Amino acid sequence: MVSPLVSIVIPTKNSSRTLSICLTSISRQTYGNIEIIVVDGYSTDDTVEIARRFGAYIYRHRGERARAKNLGLRMASGKYVLFLDSDMELTPRVIEECVALAESDQRIAGIVIPERSVGSGWLGRIRDFERSFYMDTSIESPRFFRRDIAVDVGGFDEDLVFYEEATLAHKIERAGYWVKARIGSPIIHHEEGLSLSRLLMKRYYYGKTLARYISRYPEQAYMQVSPIYRIKIFLGNRRFYLYPHLGVGVIAVKLLEYIATMIGSLSSEHIE
Prior knowledge:
By secondary structure, the protein is of the alpha/beta class. 46% of the residues lie in helices and 15% in strands. The protein has twelve helices and ten strands. It is globular, with a radius of gyration of 18 Å.
């Protein structure tokens, strides 16, 4: 049986601290027919040199992450495309499992890959604990897609930064395909350098296109925007009460993120 080509698209911008880990994990996949596409935002560090060492195709772009991913999508040759962040690490069987699942049913156009957060200190533990509750919920977004369908629906929404990673799946689902299949092998998200101030500044920035996201995807927006929906997920899981110090931390951080997002939504929505 011929193994279909998988294109892995990675947007980068001064990503030298984590990119080697990401690309090494790709080289260690149990599935071999892979091409790597790095879409770089004119990095000033060693990002491009690292990408070249791993044989990646490199393209340059200016603009938001959705625009970078759409450029990678246009340049991709694979039957399937996986969108990764430069601070993510694949466990060895991710691609193999995704291809096997996608090939088993032509109705599947998007596959969710579970994520685990790795970070130092209190915030790192909070982030990993939070992510563990999103398994099999509407919070998860697929990262692995059939490329032809992704192209047909127009890729990601380039004028959104609020949950832009979910917009491709929303459009594919509207076209009548299944995007909620999931595998078991996880992605490891390296967030060692994340601080609370950086996290809240990101949420503030994402909030700038909140209203646009809600108007375009009202059905999905409730799950992504409402703090009540997420708190129900936490409080409805018995495991939440087994670690009360982490549980309280998750609730506190999510409320701060919500406030930052709302403040951002009150500011300009102009995105370059």
